[in-house]
Amino acid sequence: MTRKYIPIDGEDPESTKKKKKKKKNRFQDESFESILAKFNKKVLESRKQRPKNIIPARQTSGSINIIPDIEKYSFPMLTDEEKKRYDELKKIVLSTDKETEAVERNEGDIEKKYRELLNDAQCEAVFNLEGPQLVIAGAGSGKTRTVVHRVAYMLEKEIRPESILLLTFTRRASNEMRSRVQRITGLDSVNRITAGTFHSFANLMLRIHGHFIGVDSNFTICDQVDSADIIDLIKNEIKIPKRSKPFPKKSTVAEIISRSRNTERPIGEVIDAQYSKYLDFAMDIAKIAQRYITFKKEKNVLDYDDLLEVFLKGLQESPQMLERIQRKYKYIMVDEFQDTNLAQGRIANLLADKTKNIMVVGDDLQSIYAFRGANFENILRFPEKWPGCKVTRLEQNYRSRKELLDLTNSIVKNCYAAYNKELFSDLTNGVAPIVKRASSAEEEASFITDAIEDSLERISPGEISVLYRSSHHGNFVQAELLKRGIDFTVYGGIKFIERRHIKDILSYARIVQNPLDAVALNRVLKLVAGIGSKTAVSIVEMISKQGFEALKTFEKKKYYKNLKDIFTTIFAAGQDDISPLEAIQIICRHYMPILKELESDYDDRIKDISVLKQISSGYRKLERFLTDFSLDPPSSKLSSGDVTDPEELAETVTLSTIHSAKGLEWHTVFVVHLLENFFPSEKALSKIDNLEEERRLFYVACSRAKEKLFLTFPAAVSFYNGILSTPSRFIAEIDRNLYEIKD
């Protein structure tokens, strides 16, 4: 038999043709006392031996052309403004393709040493110290190595370290670069270089020079948690009227306000584009944002966004402040320039306006953080801001086999506006990327896990990664890896079975299986309004000692009706002829209204619950279903994408969102769930900027692979009462001679 996809409502898509006869609810008139007595009886019954789970046979499909022609896809029409803007960007980009005259320089022993360490393009970037320079660094081309050696070269050429400013996007990156410079040169003077993030540099400058613009040097910095707490105070202060929908969480409101500031767009526009379910609260959030500004001024507090905004204001409005900083820093370098937002781009340009000695390094094709405010036009428009700038392309790739580079180069050719670069590698004799269509999402996960098991015979788990556009796209793979006992670490989200709503539903199911499961009982009881931790513990203890009839003692409590609903639901889900899927559906009918009240991102969580239902449909017995989810308890790991412990990571397969995988690499990479509306995202299909970023995201995913690359997708998936079955346009855009199809 083949597993079928069961939509959110739990009905088979074919059921519309032939309506199933509704089962009579045999216990609808049964008294609550009778239900509690049966719970006690179940506890006393001896356990039967666990039956073996029946694994469905895999579905095979014929060998056909599974990728449509690109003409079959629709693309967004450009507005007049968008057409004008992209025409400008193309013109700027094409202007950099002109051959520039080679700079003649006298090279001595220092230069000869660096020639032995770097390739010609890297040397050009390192030796060119005067004037503006744009370094376009392709994926795996040694970008960090180039920046590090340039700083080392400057020190060896006796440039004052105090005059060097290196701006990065993480403190870790700046510390690592400084350490590497120290190892290359052996000079302690590296510690006198100013290196750090834009935010840390802005903080330092405001402490020293803030008095020029009326900023008190003893200001307090509030982090993201502090910002959310302040917003919560303001929300309670201004008394927002209640509506039918729950008001967004304080952290979500803080996020909306921050994105509005980083992208320099009105709050209503940000909500409409990224948080449409909160449109009813747009005016309220705008009021909170205004009060948030005055609150911080009154308390002498700056948040992370203020650091950049206030610093930029100082550079623009105070000639004295600008002159002091420009006098100190003669050489400006910016790493990952494609990730800068508008304010950061302006800050970099102002700092270098006097000496013109600015080098920015980045890859326009790896600009994937627009949702955080990153503006890819900063790097594309750099030659426009700095006419005559030196453009250096790092195109030799040290990461991937030629066969993989051929595919990623093909992706580049489909961008509306991008710097022309053709990555090449001396690493040859590789294998072509594989495109795999599976019959279902479960079959896709099974194929991936089979391939991982095969790979583990030759390489370590840490050399394997599964990448996806959105965290819920990896749920089936997580479930399959758990089932087979393969350790994995999730980056860019919480493991599927650690998510609050999944744990809640599984707790109900665990009580169905074992009514005296104290942990599950405690979790479920705390979902009831009026029952806190202490009360929940007391109820569990009473049940343990006196049996389920002890619940009758709470008959006069306001929450007694909710208690009855919980145990009636669990009793219904535990009937002998109920399948695991039916049990989960019964539980969800009770749980979904509770979740809707508790969580503002209810719509997003539904997707996970739909996956849970689909997974449960592959089981005959609830016991085996729960066992597969608990045999290998997952660790409680969250990640922002940073690899905190390389040794630990080497022992596990990596599952990651693509956004969290940027800058990392693996021997074998799987890019999964490549269906239209999933990747590219449904929200990206109507606007050219969004679609272009999705394509860059696909490029980043594919360019993580060193030896093997798998692009996979299910033949069909239910999605918002419809069926998705069209492969991603990003596969259709690739030259078909560059990959092998497995169907």
Tell me what you see in this structure:
The protein has about 750 residues and is α/β, with parallel strands linked by helices. Helix content is about 45%, strand content about 10%. The strands form four sheets. It has a seven-stranded parallel beta sheet with strand order 11-12-10-13-14-9-17. It has a six-stranded parallel beta sheet with strand order 3-2-6-7-1-8, sandwiched between helices. Helix 21 packs across helix 22 (about 535-545).
Share in helix: 40-55%
Instruction: Give the strand order of the largest sheet, numbering strands 1, 2, ... along the chain.
Output: 11-12-10-13-14-9-17
Would you tell me the overall average pLDDT?
82
Number of helices: 30
Decide which structural class fits the backbone: alpha/beta
Distance between the termini: 19 Å
Any low-confidence stretches, pLDDT <50, length ≥5? 1-27, 46-63, 631-646
Which sheet architecture does the biggest sheet show? Answer: 7 strands, parallel
Note the beta-strand portion: 5-15%
Quick tags:
about 750 residues, 7-stranded parallel β-sheet, globular, alpha/beta, 17 strands, 6-stranded parallel β-sheet, disordered N terminus
Please write out the topology:
Blueprint: H1 32-44, H2 80-95, H3 109-117, H4 120-127, E1 133-137, H5 143-156, E2 164-168, H6 171-185, E3 194-197, H7 198-209, E4 220-222, H8 224-238, H9 250-263, H10 267-274, H11 282-299, E5 301-303, H12 304-317, H13 319-328, E6 331-334, H14 342-351, E7 358-362, H15 377-380, H16 382-385, E8 390-394, H17 402-412, E9 434-438, H18 441-455, E10 464-468, H19 475-484, E11 488-491, H20 500-513, H21 518-525, H22 533-546, H23 560-573, H24 580-598, H25 602-616, H26 622-630, H27 646-649, E12 653-657, H28 658-661, E13 666-671, H29 688-702, E14 705-714, E15 717-719, E16 722-724, H30 729-732, E17 740-742
Parallel strand pairs: 1-7, 1-8, 2-3, 2-6, 4-5, 6-7, 9-14, 9-17, 10-12, 10-13, 11-12, 13-14
Antiparallel strand pairs: 15-16
Helix pairs in contact: 1-23, 4-5, 5-6, 7-12, 8-9, 8-11, 9-10, 12-14, 17-29, 18-19, 20-21, 20-24, 21-22, 23-24, 24-25
